[in-house]
Each structure stands twice: as structure tokens, then as C-alpha cells.
Amino acid sequence: MRVDLYEKLMRAGASRRDLLKGAASMAALAATSGAGLGALTKPAAAADSLRAKIVQIPGVGKGQPTDADFQKVGELCLEATKASVKQGEFAGVELTFMGLNNQNLHNVLFRGFLKPWEAYTGAKISWIDLAQADYNARLQQSIATKTVDFDIIEMGAPFEGDVCGKGLTSEMPDWVKKQIDFDDLVNYLKPPVGTWDGKQYRCTIDGDTHNFNYRTDVFSDPDLAKEWKASGATTEWGVPKTWQEVQAVTKFLKGKKFKGQDVYGYLDAPKPWGGFGFYFLGSRATAYAKHPDDKAWLFDIDTMKPRINNPAWVRAIQDVIDALPSEPPDQINADPNTTGFQQFIAGTGSMIPWWGDIGSNVKTNDSSVIGDVTGFSILPGSDDVYNSKTGKWEKLASGPNYSPNCAYLGWGVYVMARVDSDEKKKKAAWSAAAHLGGKDLSLWTAMYPSGFQPYRNSHFNIPEWVAAGYDEAFITSYLKSEGDSYNHPNAAIEPRIPGIFQYYSAAEDILANTFAGKMKAQEGADAIAAAWEKLTDQIGRESQIKLYKSALGLS
């Protein structure tokens, strides 16, 4: 959805709460917002029989997909490969693929998708599987020791400065761009994302943003509404629109019962997670720290001075400290996998930020008990926003400040430069990457548990999701939260600078001690800032400034 359509929806009165009151609200919104919603509801192409076939494997509500399903989808999507590769063309080629096994997804699915590709092409793939918490350390070790022992890697755009910037990747051939329908990517994932020095290196397989996931039954419960009013609250009981409201609701729900069980509010993820956990503090911070008149929010543009210890970030850190006593026992030891897949979809907690995986998993994961009671919006806003240029908090005339955290820019498949000296191996590696990044296969990964979320314009065709078994109100809400996050005029975009995960990992270690009460919020933030300054000097401050400006579109 374009920014102008987003703004049109907001002018039409489409609050994030209204969008999730069911099909009636969606029908009313469609009637009032005209072309805004129409962009999401264009008719499915009747002739697209392949897409219609794969979205029914196995079908929403028919159990979690298996390896047999992965192979079936991979086989059906092989026609694009056959157009450029002869049967048996890669016989004798052996490739090594490094990626994640997080939640038994990622590499686990890739194996199934690529088995038919291996059978047709004759190539063989060996696998390096990594837990998400181990990923950054393993990749950095390969870079530092110059021992790249893989031909293909599943990698996110934040690492492009470390990998592509050091000449370790193979440039994408033009035939791959055509095969994957490169122009179908949502705008924010097009160049410069996936490029370095003007060359394209990434075959996108995912698009990342944190959205807000919440329990519709909790926030429509009349008994909780009565208790909320009796507590002295001056607002109506409902889905929080700001982080201030999230805090109030989380504290209110402490000790409450819902459907005979303990009910909790927001779920924080304080445990370090290989640098990836920092995004969850970031999602609490962006509405405080990302001013609409300033593209920067992590560092000052001209100096690379960290902003992590300014009042906005310190407030976000303090929010976590203040909320943890109202969250489930031992929440201090919860990482994002815990909050998303062991707690929220299993029925614990009523609010989390997460990547788009939650939206598909609540309907298709066998562990989910909340498929019919989950709603979505962009991340909450803030009543005020910190202006780093003036050093003051401001209340905007337009109302709360919103800034979706477009965390990580999604996963991609990258081919390493070490294959460039062997044309047969190079073509094989890029063919495997193109198969995984194919337009049709990507629709399936967006709909089912995979580790990936919608990232192509063609993923926003609601009738295709309904045909798979999603109900229209649910999927309209979900896709709108994704599109509104990607295209929000004040989105916080990931800076693709060298060492970014070194910054995040250093922060996580210090935050763990801060959340555990060993340091005050400001002390922890100051310690992170000091560590970040040291890292910047080690990497090279002037080059980091230049690349940071470029990442923000300011050079």
C-alpha cells in the first residue's frame, strides 16, 4: 500500500482498533475508503492455476505442513527452473548451503523445496544448520578468518556491509532477476537493499517488519471492561494504541483471570538472542525515538554518536523494567522464540510485537490455540516523541507519533564469490537461489509457517489467501498491518552498515544485566553507548558516517 493510500485510510477514520472488530467493520471501511482498500482486494487471476493449487497444500486448518508438502510445493514450482536449466545439467556439482534451523523452519523447508530441484538438475546440496542465537557469531568468524566454507547463504540485509562490502558475494545474473520477477518486490525492499556499490547480490525471500499482534477476545471482554472502568481508567477498554496504554493495560491485567486462566498483557523478550533480540527493544523505542522530521534514530547522522542513551531509548528500557513484574513468571529468561511460539500462540499473553510469522502461525501452526481471536495493527505509537535535534520531548499536532520498526529488512539468499571461477557451479548456485526466491513459491511461504512474511506486491491479493482457507476479515487485518508498516511515512528503516550486529549483540549483553536489576536504565544505556563508540572507532568512524548516511538515503 502506498503512503497516499495509507493516509487516505486514516482520513477515512480507519483506526487500528476499528479494523479488527470483524467483517462488519471491514465492510464499512471498504465503503468509506474507496480505492484505499481496493488495492488489497483485487480479484485473483482465474488463470493462475499453479498458485491456486499450491496454496491448498495442505490448506489452512488442515494441520501443519510436512516435508512431503514442502517437496510437493517445490516440485510444482520447478517450471521456472526448467526454462533455463536442462535436466541433469548440474550433475557432479556439490553445493554447501548455510542457513537457520530456527523453529524447524528455514533450512528445513529449503531442503524440501530443493529436493525436486536436485533431482532435476543433478546437483547435490549439503547443509550447515544454525540456531538463530548462533548465526551472527558463525558468520563473523567466517569473515574474520577468511574461511568462507559455504557456496550459498541465507542472510539478512543488515549483514550486507560485512559480506557484500568485503567482496565475498557473487553478483546476481540478469537471468535470475527475470526468473524471480524482481520488480514484484515491495518498494522498500528494492535497491539499495540487496545491493552494494550498485551491484545486486540478494535474492529476496522475506520482508521484515514488526507488527502488533493482540488477542481480540481479551480486548472485547465485557467483564474486563467493567473492571477496567472500576479501576479508575478514563479510556474505554480496548486495544492499546500507544505504548503508554500498553504499559497501563499490562499493569492492570496482573493477577486477573480470563476464561479461567491467568491473563497477561504485553510479553517482553529480555533474553539475548544473538543480536536479534535487540529489535524487540527497538520496537518499544521507535515511537519515542524516531521523530518524523529526522530520518536517524540509532546514531547522530554527522558524528555516529549513539542515541541509545538519550531520553527516548532510556524510557523504552525503563518500560521493560517496569512491565516485567506484571508479565509471566521468569519472563526475564524469555527470548523472542519463547514469546512468539511458546507463549503467545499457545495462549499466554495478549500483546506482542513480532515479525509477520505470527500472522500465519496462529492459523496454521499445530501449537496455536488463538487462530480465531488474533488481531493486528502497526506498532503502538507514543503520546510524545523525543526530538534529538532540540533535546526536548514534543507532542505532535497530528496526534500520537507512530514509527513501525522495519526490523532486519528480511532474509535473502546470497551466492558466494567463491563459485565465480566455475561457471557450472555458479549457475547451479544461482539456480537454487532463484528457485527459493521464486514468485509462486514465495506465496506459499508467506501463507504457511516458514520464517518468512509477505514481501511482494503480489502477496497482497486477499482472494488468494481466502482460497487457502483464511477468513477475509482476519487476513485483511493482517496484510494491512504489514503494508502499513512497510509504507509508513515515519517507518524506522534498518541501517545497512558494517558491524550492525556487533552493535546489537553488545547491547543485548548489557541489556540483560540491566533488565535483571544489576544496572539502572540510564547506566545500562550509557554502557551500551560507550561500547558502540568503541566499535565505531574500530570499524572506522568516517566510513561508518558515510555508509550510515547512505543507508538513510541522505547521500
From TrEMBL:
This is Sugar ABC transporter substrate-binding protein. InterPro entries: Bact_solute-bd_prot1, TAT_signal. It comes from the Bacteria. PANTHER family: ARABINOSE-BINDING PROTEIN-RELATED (PTHR43649), DIACETYLCHITOBIOSE BINDING PROTEIN DASA (PTHR43649:SF12). PROSITE patterns: TAT (PS51318). It comes from Mesorhizobium vachelliae.
